[in-house]
Known about the structure:
There is one protein chain. With 378 residues, the chain is of the alpha/beta class. It has 2 domains: 13-244, Type I PLP-dependent aspartate aminotransferase-like (Major domain) (Aspartate Aminotransferase, domain 2), CATH 3.40.640; 247-371, Alpha-Beta Complex (Aspartate Aminotransferase, domain 1), CATH 3.90.1150.10. The protein is built from 12 helices and 13 strands. The chain has helices spanning 13-29, 36-49, 60-71, 87-94, 113-117, 139-149, 201-210, 234-244, 247-265, 297-308, 336-344, 356-371; strands at residues 53-57, 77-81, 98-102, 124-130, 153-157, 165-166, 169-170, 177-181, 194-198, 271-273, 280-281, 287-291, 345-348. A 7-stranded mixed sheet has the order 1-9-8-5-4-2-3, with helices on both faces. Strands 7-6-11 form a 3-stranded antiparallel sheet, with no helix packed on it. A 3-stranded antiparallel sheet has the order 10-12-13. A hairpin with a 2-residue loop joins strand 6 (165-166) and strand 7 (169-170). 48% of the residues are buried.
Amino acid sequence: MKPIPAGRIVIPEKDRRQILARIDEALRTGVLTLGDNGRAFETSFARTVGTQFAVAVQSGTSALEIVLRSLGVEGREVVVPSNTFFATPAAVIHAGGRPRFADVDRATMGLTVDTLAAVVSPATVAVIVVHIAGTVSPETPKIAEFCRDRDLFLVEDAAHAHASTLDGRMAGTFGKAAAFSFYPTKVITAGEGGMIVTDDETIYGQAIQYRDQGKEGFLTNFHVRMGYNWRLSELHAAVGLSQLGRLGEFVAERRRVAQAYTRRLAGVAGIAPLVPPDGSCPNFYKYVAMLNQGVDRLALKRTLKERFQVSLSGEVYETPCHHQPVFKSWAEGEFPVAEEVCSRHVCLPIYPGLTEAEIDHVVSSLQETLSGGPTPCV
């Protein structure tokens, strides 16, 4: 068996030719930013998600910060789950707000109405839900209602959640606005990049200005906002537009692999898959499984890689934000569930094209490692 990587970027030869043709046209015309590729990417992405507007930017992090700046969070609190990537609370801080961490739910690793209600204060202006591993929690509509009742903005960090749904509703359509990422590890990539989606015309207009140094318009040097260079290049947009055309295919493949893992793991002691809740149809950006208490995760990952040539991907996440030194000033409260789920889960290799034989090898390697001895192939 060849080594099985944690992930794999899939760009078929036909797509590479199309990407190169788009890039060549951008080079020929000299339009290297905010051109036809970017506009087509925005239009197609908005249509895919089902929102009126989309704004392409240079990262998912900047997408989130631009949304928060547009909502005016400066000087106010924004609730974020402690189990999230650095970028979520960092975007709050860079936008002038104060992150207020909340605990999460074991079943989805995300916020619930109860964990949110426990930390909301008169200083709270917004809430960020994070669709961890591509799962849209059934709590999301309840959180949206909670926010509406209290005049709070709901923002979706949908960096993991391209084409994920809850009861048929797309991630990115539950809040005031959402931020997606096209980092290389994501379900689809642009190399680097992010996308803001919203139905709010004011947020859309401000986002267009923020991403281009706060200018009133692309062809002027009249600056009306404290923006930044958050533009997405035409070269990156060409890659993202191509990948977007494969989104349905890629998600179907990930769901196939996830279903195969779930069937096979049923007979493996020491580990249990994190099964999506009823109504939630994730894209399986990550395939998450929980280890039994006492299993040494680092030793497990080391054995899988060194002995079986199986690489597990990074966790979501290994360390909760309230334990990150950079967020020490905002680490107020206790977060027992976030600490538990962060310490116990692993993410199995998942990507389009992973074969049944490779899936068998991953699971049998897990079984042998967890049992401490050889077992028959699954």
